[in-house]
């Protein structure tokens, strides 16, 4: 499908070429990285090896994500623009908090996630080729560069890559799960380890800790909102895409967890942080580790592609508003993509991956993502009051309780993080505050440009 040519001008419109299927694959592909291959063992451990409580944590994490997806469904149908949560927060709470959202995404959260995936990609590639430290950094940089090139080439092009890579990794997870369920015998005694642990303070605390890892495994469902500005029939397709994609994730994650227990049994699954590799090895023998490594490589490439495809549109929206690098608002005349936004964010991700600095930054600021989830979710209340007559092709079911539960959960996560790690949280807030002088500098520069 040819991309219509557009002039290179700041704020130029992006071409609408994404369909419902593309949105579903973006949600699923961006979320499934390496989490489902490693987190389940830790969740079982933290819930005392009780399969029932472990699966409950996965269900709760999925339900929380689904509450957010339903809320975003109404917002995206009402404001189908490039930028997603940035646009919702801007319209509800003003340009400053919206800018800080985009600022944190660009400098740490999104680019840090891509850097993390790239470094892990190089690590898993060692299952196939020997890589020294320098070669591993080069591989990580090359992976980010390839993802960037794919996304510059065209939205339709990058969506096709996302669809194929997501299809491959979902098929691999489903195939692995069916194989493990058929070959393992760990479910024989699983009833005795299902909701058998006494409900004590230690169990409740463990469930809370386990929830952190599960929410990390679900992280990324909201990113698709940034692509609403390139979606065909967005009022209809976007709400359906984000809800169907998030629901599919819950089903995939629960199936994989049950399959791991079937292959290893609850006790053995709880002892490992490489649960997928151990389960496949138990089913197929010691030489099967490369199968999991190959699946993880595809999974991480797909997740990095989804992050780049979606979040580059946030920076494009910021630049179009005059509060970010002017060049990032330009649309490529041939490919119809925010090419500079893709290239600059990919270059920064390469710097983070090469220096390893993303690890500390990411740890300090990741809780801020939930601050912005909270603000974006709360936008639905503000906009319903402020714009009651605005067209809403989709209204969040169970309003006001659905978004209220999501916002309250996001607030609890933020408060708990600050209470548990005050020093780290203060440093994160300090990094966030660095955006304040940048915001006012860009606003002044943009005002001078307009006056001139």
Spell out the key features of this protein.
single chain, 452 residues, mainly alpha, Amino acid/polyamine transporter I, 18 helices, 73% helix, 0% strand, globular, disordered N terminus
The tally of beta strands, per DSSP, is: 0
Low-confidence stretches: 1-11
Overall 3D shape:
globular
N to C succession of SSEs: HHHHHHHHHHHHHHHHHH
Could you outline the blueprint of secondary structure elements for this entry?
Blueprint (H helix, E strand, L loop, with lengths): L19 H12 L3 H12 L4 H28 L6 H9 L1 H31 L7 H21 L1 H29 L17 H18 L15 H31 L1 H5 L4 H10 L4 H32 L18 H17 L2 H8 L2 H19 L14 H20 L1 H12 L1 H17 L1
Helix pairs in contact: 1-7, 1-9, 1-12, 2-3, 2-8, 3-8, 3-9, 3-15, 3-16, 4-5, 4-15, 5-6, 5-12, 5-13, 5-14, 6-7, 6-12, 6-13, 7-9, 7-12, 9-11, 11-12, 12-13, 14-17, 15-16, 16-17
């Amino acid at each position: 499908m040819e991309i219509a040519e557009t002039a290179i001008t700041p704020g130029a419109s992006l071409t609408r070429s994404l369909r419902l299927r593309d949105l579903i694959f973006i949600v699923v592909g961006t979320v499934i990285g390496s989490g489902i291959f490693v987190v389940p063992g830790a969740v079982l451990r933290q819930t005392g090896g009780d399969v029932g409580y472990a699966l409950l944590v996965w269900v709760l994490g999925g339900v929380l994500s689904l509450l957010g997806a339903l809320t975003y469904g109404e917002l995206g149908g009402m404001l189908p623009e490039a930028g997603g949560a940035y646009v919702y927060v801007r319209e509800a709470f003003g340009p400053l908090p919206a800018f800080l959202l985009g600022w944190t995404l660009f400098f740490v959260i999104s680019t840090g996630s891509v850097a993390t995936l790239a470094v892990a990609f190089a690590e898993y590639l060692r299952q196939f080729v020997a890589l020294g430290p320098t070669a591993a950094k080069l591989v990580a940089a090359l992976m980010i560069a390839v993802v960037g090139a794919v996304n510059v080439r065209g939205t339709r092009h990058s969506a096709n890559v996302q669809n194929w890579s997501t299809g491959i990794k979902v098929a691999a997870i489903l195939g692995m799960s069916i194989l493990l369920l058929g070959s393992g015998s760990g479910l024989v005694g699983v009833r005795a380890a299902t909701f058998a642990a006494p409900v004590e303070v230690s169990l409740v605390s463990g469930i809370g800790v386990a929830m952190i890892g599960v929410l990390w495994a679900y992280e990324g469902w909201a990113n698709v909102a940034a692509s609403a500005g390139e979606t065909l029939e967005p009022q209809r397709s976007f709400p359906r895409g984000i809800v169907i994609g998030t629901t599919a994730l819950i089903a995939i994650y629960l199936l994989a967890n049950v399959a791991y227990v079937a292959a290893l049994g609850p006790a053995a699954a709880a002892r490992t942080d490489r649960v997928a590799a151990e389960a496949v090895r138990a089913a197929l023998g010691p030489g099967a580790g490369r199968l999991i490594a190959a699946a993880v490589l595809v999974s991480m490439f797909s997740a990095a592609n989804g992050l780049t495809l979606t979040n580059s549109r946030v920076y494009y929206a910021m630049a179009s508003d005059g509060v970010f690098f002017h060049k990032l608002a330009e649309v490529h005349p041939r490919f119809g993509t925010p090419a500079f936004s893709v290239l600059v964010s990919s270059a920064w991700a390469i710097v983070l991956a090469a220096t390893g600095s993303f690890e500390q930054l990411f740890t300090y600021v990741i809780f801020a993502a939930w601050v912005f989830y909270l603000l974006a979710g709360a936008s639905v209340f503000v906009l319903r009051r402020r714009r009651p007559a605005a067209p809403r092709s989709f209204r969040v079911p169970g309003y006001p309780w659905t978004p209220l539960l999501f916002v309250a959960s996001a607030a609890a996560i933020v408060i708990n993080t600050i209470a548990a790690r005050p020093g780290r949280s203060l440093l994160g807030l300090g990094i966030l505050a660095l955006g304040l002088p940048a915001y006012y500098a860009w606003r002044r520069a943009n005002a001078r440009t307009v006056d001139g």
